[in-house]
Design goal:
alpha+beta; SH3 type barrels; three-stranded antiparallel β-sheet; 17% helix; rod-shaped
Length: 163
């Protein structure tokens, strides 16, 4: 059995009246409760003639109490993965030798090596300091040992065969 449109309107009207009556009862109950007494310092000042009523104050959240624990976030994802610690930093290494071998001369049992460095020509002997960072440690046969001073690391430069 389908209700007619008139019956539907009667039911909806009755529900509307019941809702309005319930709302009025709630307002009457709130008006019946006595307002708590406030000290004079908190009482609002008496309105002056022609003054506008005060603007309503927005509801502000209560400050958290010290003993209240924060609520867990139900939307945060959880994982048991713990990232491994970062690897230790790599030990510094001397840069490749910036010298190029050009030739060598043996004179009175002293070996002098001719090197090219940044567009300049150098003559190096054992014990010479080259460019503040390098010292010629030894010249033996077809190898020249050069020490990189900032890291105290020894490197070798090929200087040709025996002569």
């Amino acid at each position: 059995m389908n209700p007619t449109p008139r019956q539907r309107w009667i039911v909806l009207g009755g529900l509307l009246l019941a809702t309005l009556a319930a709302g009025m009862m709630i307002e009457e109950e709130a008006a019946d409760e006595p307002e708590p007494r406030r000290p004079r310092s908190e009482r609002p000042a008496a309105p002056t003639a022609g003054a506008l009523p005060p603007a309503p104050v927005a509801a502000q959240p209560l400050p958290p109490t010290a003993d209240a624990a924060p609520l867990p976030d139900p939307f945060r994802s959880h994982s048991w993965y713990i990232a491994p610690p970062p690897p230790p930093p790599a030990q510094p290494v001397a840069p490749p030798l910036p010298f190029s071998y050009l030739g060598k001369v043996i004179e009175d049992k002293e070996i002098r090596v001719f090197l090219a460095y940044q567009g300049r020509h150098l003559i190096a002997r054992q014990g010479d300091k080259l460019d503040r960072n390098y010292v010629v440690e030894a010249i033996e046969g077809n190898r020249m040992r050069i020490r990189y001073l900032p890291l105290n690391e020894e490197q070798e430069l090929a200087i040709g065969g025996e002569s």
